[in-house]
Amino acid sequence: MKSFLRFRIGSLALAVGLLAVQPTTAQEGKWTEYYSFEKVALPATVDHQVGGLTTLSDGRIAACVDSGEVLLFAPETGKWSEFARGLMCPLGLLEEPSGALLVMQWTELTRLTDTDKDGKADFYETVFDGFGVTGNYHEFAYGPARDKDGNLYIALNVASNNGGVFKHVRGPWSQIGLAKEHMDASNGKKIADEYKKEAGRMYSRVPYRGWVLKITPDGKTVPFASGFRSPDGIGFDDEGRLWITDNQGDWKATSPLYHVEEGNFYGHPASLIWEGGWGDRNPLDVPVEELQEKRTREAGFFPYGDMANSPTQPLPTIDPEKFGLPKGELLIGDMNQPNLIRFLSEEVGGVMQGAAIPFLLTPELGIGNHRFAFDPEGALWIGKTHLKWAGDEGLTKVTWNRKPLFLVEKAHLLEDGFEIGFNAALAEELPKLKVSRHTYHYHGEYGSPRVDDQQVEPLDVAVSEDRKSLRFTLPEIEEDYLYTITLKRAKNASGDPLMGHVMHYFVNTSVAGKPETDAGFEDLLATGDLSNFFTGNKGGKWTLKDGVVSRGPEKVGSLMTRKKYRNFDLKFEWKISEGGNSGVIYRSQKGKGLEYQVLDDERHVRGKTPNSSAAALYDLVGPVADKPYRPAGEWNSGRIVSNGSHIEHWLNGSKVLEIEIGSEDWQERFAKSKFSEVKSFAGSESGIQFQDHGADVSYRNIRIRSL
Amino acid sequence: MNFPANPEMRVILALSLLLTLPAPAQESPQKSAGELAYQMNCMACHQAELRLVGPSLVAIAQTYPAEKKADFIAWAKEPGKKDPKLMQMPPMAHIPEETLASIHAYMLEAAVGKKEKKAGKQYAGYKEPVRELPYVVRAFLPDSSPASLGVVLKDNISVCWDTEACRFRYAWPGSKTRLRQGHTVVDLKAKPFYRETAQQLWSFACDPKPKFRGYRLRDDGSPEFAYSIGDVEVREHIRNGEQSGSLVRHFTLAKAVDELVLNLEQDTSATVVCDKGTRDGHMLTLTGDDTQSFTLTISK
What's the complex ipTM? Predict the structure, then answer.
């Protein structure tokens, strides 16, 4: 059984003060002990900037390069051959089941087919060119990514006012904004300084710049999501979720990662011109509050300077036996630092968010990490580019040497803290924990400074009995903040350092603040008195002070709602006194019913038995072994979902048990319980009782919603 | 559950933890704070001697000597654009001023005794190989849409073919295959010897807009473009003509139409000959089976 040993970190002054000037991502272990890095030569006749990379079903590697070729690498001969040529800024490759290759060019998505089987494509088929091109230098086009139904997704940059547009543009020109005559880019011309502001720092004057488009197998186009600026990275994870990275700039405080869903707007307003029913408003004139309301927030942030000033392709990890990383994560490229990023995602309150953790942060990796593919043996091929920004050229192959890595494999937001899971037990000497957090402005300026950047003190730290999990609480969890969690000198039991000891977790949605969960709830203490309750019959009274209802040291009898409930969702917070016992009893008759146990597990004898420990369904079902329990004297949040035969108990944001009344499992448990003789047990509605079981206990925030 | 039973034990646990902590590990004790901060925030774009994405440290040291530290900090927090050829730096307002000052100090130190090198040395680059012709390449070509292709034939003949309008725009004397010049329109350095000027070539064009389907490369590398105009599917194969200085456009329609008129108006003085149909000035009329397959030969 996993339980949490608790201790306090006395003072954060002990945390390393050097961090203000030290790179927070600096590694403590050597990546070269786990991975080897090898350059793979490209032919001398092509540009070595890699725009797309993929592994073919026959094991060959396909790469497209900035001079316009698609090249194939045969591992058995170690030789490259040219498959296609003459393409324009190809930035993505995808093999089709037929063996044809899809390539995303500046102006179209193209299918390359070798119809005569001579090893070279002879059919350059236009799959999709239904988007505008102005000739502006910033109109990169990315993709395609393919979902499980065979739909293709491409992502389109907006144009920059550092460049203008050609006389001939493709696509209908929107009249919203600066007159086209002032935007002429022919003969090396630029937008004059006095017109730049009116043009917008980034603009979308032809269709779907700043959009992600979906192209169905039968050729239909769906404008899928808007608000992008420079979405270089587009890809699906193993669960079929679409992830897109974007680049810092106007309306992009720092480079973000988005979980992209249909119909959403991701923050850059230029693209809104092409939204159905938009009308003729200039996106530059839309108040920021309206955009803020309209936009969907990021799933992750790469803090500028610390990692990925320019992030690239997201790629799902593969079989852990092959590359050493857990499956189900995303790897994301970093153009500016010798680094890749692992992104560990989780769903909180219905939205995806998670932690970015540096990976392979070592000079051997180099910068410019743009496109990725795992070969059949599990080596990671990395294509580099710069396109005249920071970056590099060429191909690097990274091979795991099978030495196990000590890694963070879970970054889980709790209602009032975090749980960090490791793939091996922590050493006796625990890491030094340091937590800071900051937010960013959402605005049209280029990037945002860190706002409200503060260290926060982890109030207490607990390690699980198996030492593979670390929990801590924070005074508060703020939404729209990026939390940086640093575990200095973290080692496993064998003394291996934690590889990737800095996590940047973006709290888009906090556990407590799930927007939908409070809707429809009635706060039973909102009246400011106890008028919603019967307050005891043993001569005393429960007292209500500052929203907290307490039994006190003397016996008063149970507190019970006046209203009766059967199907409901009840949320409450509880604090038990040392050695104390209480409970929340529901669907009861003559005091016997289902009970959410409230207990000091550490001191009360019933704490030793799961079925009677805190959050148990008393004498029937015990909570999970690693329940996020907080001891006597601290507030815990509880939740009971009672819906027909379905029962759930929650503790501090985690579901700790569930059962179906009447199921085989239930029948067995019920027969063994002290309730086995009670007829129609748990069948009827009743008032909900906050039990006086002989000990002081407090409750607050008692909210209920009938189901 | 196995929790330490009393509070004192927790204290002992915590104390023992504090006592066993080793001295803070300096990742790189020899590096100054300024150097570390430079590596983290600046190095990707600013190198000591090389003008890369931004100016070199040598150039920065000239603009911001020690006495201009405050100017350096102010610029870094709110950069403008000094050099039109370089990207504008994003603001570094998130970096504390004392750190910016340490970066400045490091940059001055790192620039001492160094000279700026010419940019572009960092990458080997590549040399355009001698291409076998014909060679088909997407490029930004003048007087055409950004979605255009260059077809470089033998015999110093090149063609601009616009995939947006689905039409042959012009032919010019040239054999250069590196037709992409960054993101600017390529300078062909030659006047077209043939350019079609009619609003529309085909009598059955143009609404809805023609649809480009792609191109096939024949064994000799010459392209055959495929497009549809309304419900008419057209293939247009472009290659060198038999005669020196000529090129051939061979058209194939999926099915014959009753009558087809092509407007071959040009603002050049090339000779255009069709193997079928009748001519009246610039207007070429084809009927019946002749519309399914015909060849235009264009000579300088």
Answer: 0.76
